[in-house]
Automatic annotation (TrEMBL):
Coiled coil: none
Family, similarity comment: Belongs to the glycosyl hydrolase 1 family. Klotho subfamily.
Protein EC: 3.2.1.21, 3.2.1.45, 3.2.1.46
Spans through the membrane: 574-595
Catalytic activity as recorded in UniProt: beta-D-galactosyl-(1<->1')-N-octadecanoylsphing-4-enine + H2O = N-octadecanoylsphing-4-enine + D-galactose; a beta-D-xylosyl-(1<->1')-N-acylsphing-4-enine + cholesterol = cholesteryl 3-beta-D-xyloside + an N-acylsphing-4-enine; beta-D-galactosyl-(1<->1)-sphing-4-enine + H2O = sphing-4-enine + D-galactose; beta-D-glucosyl-(1<->1)-N-octadecanoylsphing-4-enine + H2O = N-octadecanoylsphing-4-enine + D-glucose
Record key words, sorted: Glycosidase, Hydrolase, Membrane, Transmembrane, Transmembrane helix
Protein name as annotated: Cytosolic beta-glucosidase
Record lineage: Eukaryota, Metazoa, Chordata, Craniata, Vertebrata
Top EC group: hydrolase
Gene Ontology BP annotations: carbohydrate catabolic process
Catalytic residues, chain numbering: E443 (nucleophile)
Record-level Gene Ontology MF annotations: beta-glucosidase activity; galactosylceramidase activity; glucosylceramidase activity
Top-rank taxon: Eukaryota
Length: 599
């Protein structure tokens, strides 16, 4: 059972120059992932881990791994409907919980920004597909807007044919360009009416409505879509939507709401998978999985068993929360024990973590054809006991603290640091923990530094190079990775951060009504990686970097000149019609004078 998977064998993580084989798997606990303290150069103390606990690099990063990915490896970029489409109330689309959440204003989103227009992607399909061709990607991961297809969220009420046509045209455009569509059914934008009338993911009925919605999508798009993702990062959707209130629908039932929402999301996923498996798989021959995001958790003090256990617990409350029911049929024992104990200490008769029945466990287990894994950064983890009297919360249930090393490259966002070696460890962990599933990396990327608008994003190039290389090392370790999706194609609406965080390969000028796109240096660099299917040799890889910066320098000059060109265009749009009108008026006056003189 996956509950005991930490005690299964794990590979030691080393690649050298990729000429060495991975060391023989060690038949010991998950602690095998953490090498001896001396190897990492631990110099901090537990009393002051944030400032003093720096480490002198990682053995995994000691050498860069030159080589190529397996033949047929799939390269892509991603986006989501709410973040890019705009057209929030056009062509029959119904409101989503994020429409309602952002329209409330009052500090819900940084700068009180809204996504009514976003990237205007609804009206720029062909242009954005051209950008995908320019990148040479082999797949494009995007999400369907549930309320665009079903305005009330309920199939029996109404199906929006214009919404179906929009996504059908997008899928056809991708296939015409030899780009595989990887389609996410739900990326956080729940129909608002399901939230108002049924309580959204707090009520199990939403799982049934989701199953009906998924069946519609399989029916109308499944002849062309062969890769389905049911949910994107449901942990964040549940945690920020039903615990902290930072995301739509903005609820804060601490320590209860997120577990209930997650419980129903897991059931909804299983229903959709079974529906595809029983009705559509034989005809369509597709795959259905889920995308789970998780950072790597590294023990603060690897000689302290409590910190090692806390790091394991961090991963299980993060990735295992959803993955363990899907792969093993139930929540991990560590979650059931801790949440159950704290619930009892808080005077509750039942655990705040819902329980699956035996029938549900059998129904949910095995409902994934692949594991979608999203990853962005790493945290050091140390043990900290939170008394139950502080009240119920996800944070208190975990009994740990997340820390960062001040020496890690800071990319500008408060939460995102570049720590490539954590990616390799997470991939190996997932491979061992869940029985060597096919893994698709469904999200990985870096935002801009501060509020920079520059196109020469060399920090993103370094991030991409490091993380993709650690993924290559994980494949050399034996992890079954089928594809990689970099986040994201465009700068887009980033939820509670508004438009302040920019993850795109293409810069979007949001202040321009046309939302023009400009390629960043990282777009050129990623294109080179895709074309070479990896990192062929040092000289060529270095030339990519220099070429990307040279290209972005030219693009930056064009971008800098854009305001002047727009001003000239605006002046032209005003001046030319005005002059023409004056000419017509003057001609009319002269004609009248001429006629009078003749009479």
């Amino acid at each position: 059972a996956a509950d005991h998977a930490p005690n299964q064998s794990l590979r030691m993580l080393r690649c050298g120059l990729c000429s060495q084989r991975a060391a023989q798997a060690l038949a010991i606990s998950l602690r095998a992932l953490w090498p001896p303290a001396a190897a990492l150069g631990v110099s901090g103390t537990k009393d002051n881990p944030r400032l003093g606990a720096t480490r002198k690099g990682s053995p995994e990063e000691a050498s860069f791994c030159y080589g190529t990915f397996p033949l047929g490896f799939s390269w892509g970029v991603g986006s989501s409907a709410f973040q890019t489409e705009g057209a929030w109330d056009q062509d029959g689309k119904g409101p989503s919980i994020w429409d309602a959440f952002t329209h409330r204003g009052k500090g819900k989103v940084l700068g009180d920004e809204i996504a009514d227009l976003a990237c205007n992607g609804y009206y720029r399909v062909q242009e954005d597909v051209a950008l995908l061709r320019e990148l040479h990607v082999t797949h494009y991961r995007f999400s369907l807007s549930w309320p665009r297809l079903l305005p009330t969220g309920i199939r029996a009420d109404q199906v929006n044919e214009k919404g179906i046509k929009f996504y059908s045209d997008l899928i056809d455009a991708l296939l015409k360009s030899n780009i595989t569509p990887v389609v996410t059914l739900h990326h956080w934008d729940l129909p608002q009416l399901l939230q108002v009338k049924h309580g959204g993911w707090q009520d199990v009925s939403t799982a049934n409505y989701f199953s009906d919605y998924a069946n519609l999508c399989f029916e109308v798009f499944g002849d062309r879509v062969k890769h389905w993702v049911t949910f994107s990062d449901p942990r964040t959707m549940a945690g920020k939507g039903y615990e902290t209130g930072h995301h739509a629908p903005g609820l804060k039932p601490h320590g209860t709401g997120l577990y209930k929402a997650a419980h129903h999301i897991i059931k909804a996923h299983a229903q959709a998978w079974h529906s595809y498996n029983s009705t559509w798989r034989s005809k369509q021959q597709g795959l259905v999985g889920i995308s789970l995001n998780c950072d790597w958790g590294e023990p603060m003090d690897i000689s302290n068993p409590k910190d090692v256990e806390a790091a394991e617990r961090y991963l299980q409350f993060c990735l295992g929360w959803f993955a363990n029911p899907i792969y093993a049929g139930d929540y991990l024992q560590v979650m059931k024990d801790r949440i159950g104990r704290k619930s009892a200490e808080q005077g509750l008769d039942m655990s705040r973590l819902p329980a699956f029945s035996l029938q549900e466990k059998r129904y949910i287990k095995g409902t994934s054809d692949f594991l979608g894994l999203g990853h962005f950064t790493t945290r050091y983890i140390t043990e900290r006991n939170y008394p139950s009297r502080q009240g119920p919360s996800y944070q208190n249930d975990r009994d740990l603290v997340e820390l960062v090393d001040p020496n890690w490259p800071d990319l500008g966002s408060k939460w995102l640091y570049s720590v490539p070696w954590g990616f390799r460890r997470l991939l190996n962990f997932a491979q061992t923990q869940y029985g060597d599933p096919p893994i698709y990396v469904t999200e990985n990327g870096a935002s801009q530094k501060l509020h920079s608008s520059q196109l020469c994003d060399e920090w993103r190039i370094h991030y991409l190079k490091g993380y993709i290389n650690e993924m290559l090392k994980a494949i050399k370790d034996g992890v079954n990775i089928k594809g990689y999706t970099s986040w994201s194609l465009l700068d887009q609406f980033e939820w509670e951060k508004g438009y302040s965080d920019r993850y795109g390969f293409y810069y979007v000028e949001f202040n321009n009504r046309n939302k023009p796109r400009y390629p960043k240096a990282s777009a050129q660099y990623y294109k080179k990686i895709i074309t070479a299917n990896g990192f062929p040799n040092p000289r060529e890889v270095e030339s990519w970097y220099l070429e990307a910066l040279e290209t972005c320098s030219i693009n930056s000059q064009m971008f800098a000149a854009e305001p002047a060109l727009r001003h000239m265009q605006m002046v032209t749009e005003i001046t030319v019609p005005t002059v023409c009108s004056l000419c017509v008026l003057l001609a009319a006056v002269l004609l009248m004078l001429l006629l009078r003189s003749q009479s």
